[in-house]
Design a protein that fits this description.
- The chain has two domains: about 200 residues, 2-Layer Sandwich (BirA Bifunctional Protein, domain 2), CATH 3.30.930.10; about 40 residues, SH3 type barrels (Roll).
- A hairpin with a 2-residue loop joins strand 5 and strand 6.
- The strands form two sheets. It has a seven-stranded mixed β-sheet, with helices on both faces.
- The N and C termini lie far apart (about 50 Å).
- By secondary structure, the protein is α+β, with helices and mostly antiparallel strands.
- The protein is built from five helices and twelve strands.
- Bound molecules: adenosine-5'-triphosphate.
- The site of adenosine-5'-triphosphate has 20 residues, from strand 6, strand 7 and strand 12.
Length: about 250
């Protein structure tokens, strides 16, 4: 039903789907532009980290989303994208999907998918963002991902056979479309409850690690902008999704 709203290009290989779409955004023809790659040779995560994928085992794609003038600040986009991904996978029958602030999708603490949102310079045009998604579909046996203690894939979360990548993509694009429309008209508050319901760390001790700092506290949800709320010794603190990572903590300092 939404097919006409999307322009989907599926390539065999590219360095990074986010890199390609941010470097040369397609002209605005009113459609949502999507670039899918069977293989990324230099997949990106946040802060210059790598996103690893294996041809046939992963779904890696990016979506160029243009906002109407006056749309809410794009700060909550990573969270909305995560929620859309979670809902799409649940709709396909995946069990136990959880979100990790700001932008990861986990199952039992293991990373199933990553999301990288990059904003395009406005240059007088309405704001636009490239939302990159890397989803493990069926990982080769014996792989390990540096810096990640546990990784999982969609096939392990399903009781039935893994659907074709095109079906998974269509489910995710449909949810993204629906939730971005809600986000554009009503902002993050309209989606906050659904996001929090799936957060893996609600009421748990966490550590927020920055480049040279660590903040410990008990996770108290997210606010109306999608900032993380942390109960610390110094009171309730608001953490913006920037160059920080959430890790399970021991509650020290909380
Ligand atoms: P965190 O918040 O946990 O620090 P991040 O949001 O900064 O993560 P991302 O940008 O989502 O991380 O992704 C990059 C990281 O994800 C890499 O450093 C690596 O640890 C991990 N990673 C890379 N490829 C995969 C994969 N296929 N499956 C699971 N994890 C991966």
């Amino acid at each position: 039903m939404l097919a006409g709203d999307f322009s989907i290009i599926w390539v065999d290989e590219c360095a990074s789907t986010n890199g390609t779409l941010t470097a040369a955004p397609p002209a605005d023809d009113g459609r949502v532009h999507v670039l899918v790659a069977n293989r990324q040779t230099a997949g990106r995560g946040r802060r210059g980290r790598a996103w690893l994928s294996w041809p046939g085992s992963s779904l890696t794609f990016s979506v160029l989303w243009r906002f109407m003038p006056g749309a809410p600040a794009p700060a909550g986009l990573s969270l909305v994208a995560g929620l859309a991904l979670a809902r799409a996978l649940e709709g396909l029958g995946a069990q136990g999907i959880q979100l990790k602030w700001p932008n990861d999708v986990l199952v039992h603490g293991e990373k199933l998918a990553g999301i990288l949102v990059e904003l395009l310079p406005a240059r007088g045009r309405p704001p636009a963002a490239v939302i990159g998604i890397g989803l493990n579909l069926h990982l080769p046996t014996g792989i390990s991902v540096p810096g990640q203690s546990g990784v999982t894939d969609l096939s392990r979360t399903l009781e039935h056979e893994l659907p074709a990548a095109t079906i998974v993509l269509a489910a995710i694009l449909t949810e993204l479309h629906g939730l971005f429309e809600i986000y554009a008209s009503a902002g993050f508050p309209a989606l906050r409850g659904a996001w929090q319901q799936r957060h893996a760390f609600t009421d748990l001790p966490v550590c927020i690690r920055g480049e040279d700092s660590a903040l410990y506290g008990i996770c108290a949800g997210v606010d109306e902008d999608g900032a993380l709320l942390l109960r610390t010794e110094a009171g309730l603190q608001r953490v913006l999704a920037g160059d920080v990572s959430l890790r399970p903590g021991d509650g020290a300092g909380a």
